[in-house]
UniProtKB/TrEMBL annotation:
Gene3D superfamilies reported in the protein's UniProt record: 3.30.1370.110
The keyword Coiled coil is assigned to this record: yes
Bilayer-spanning residue ranges: none
Key words, A-Z: Coiled coil
Coiled-coil boundaries: 8-44
Domain annotation Smr: ranges: 130-211
SUPFAM superfamilies in the record: SMR domain-like
Name listed for the protein in its UniProt record: DNA mismatch repair protein MutS
Domain of life: Bacteria
Higher taxonomy: Bacteria, Pseudomonadati, Pseudomonadota, Betaproteobacteria, Burkholderiales
Amino acid sequence: MTDRLRSLQDLQTLHRELKLRQRAEEERREREAAAARLREHEARIFEHSVGAVVPLPASNRVILNRGRPEPEPRQRELDEQMAWQQALSDDFDVDSLLETDESLSFRRPEISAESVRKLRRGHWSLQAQIDLHGLRRDQAREALGQFIHDSARRGLRCVRVVHGKGNGSPGKEPVLKARVRRWLVQKQEVLAFVQARASDGGSGALMVLLNAT
């Protein structure tokens, strides 16, 4: 009798467990169905808001292919620096191009004498300068060429080139003065130059008018 009661109790317990599992499964299904209905409702709201959506044809799609970055043109930069140095010749005959005043000014044919007078009077404000003191000839030539090139590319109009008065040179003669004038005449960016006013360096410097690009 005892064994039969125990078996009956076990069956009842098993039956209750099965019912609990069945109820849990039904609740899970109801939650999933409710979530599906909510997603469908939200999708309909989105479609109603944006209207009909038509997929783009494959032919109208752009496939972006990120290429490798271009290498830095280091050799071209070196070639340009070499061109600056080679373009400025020490043998260039500049005397015929200079005005016959005491400051030996220079202007290209398209530049008026009035522009030279304005340059001498400080009409254009000084925007940059380079000091060639202490540089050897080749160093000064390369530094000046690059300075003029960079200044013109930056859109500068008026710059100053300090070459020195030669007070510390043998014979008190300025070593770079004549060379700087010769080099500047050969630079296409240079439209004109005059000796600086006393307040700007006097005979030890030049005020240069550039063709800013």
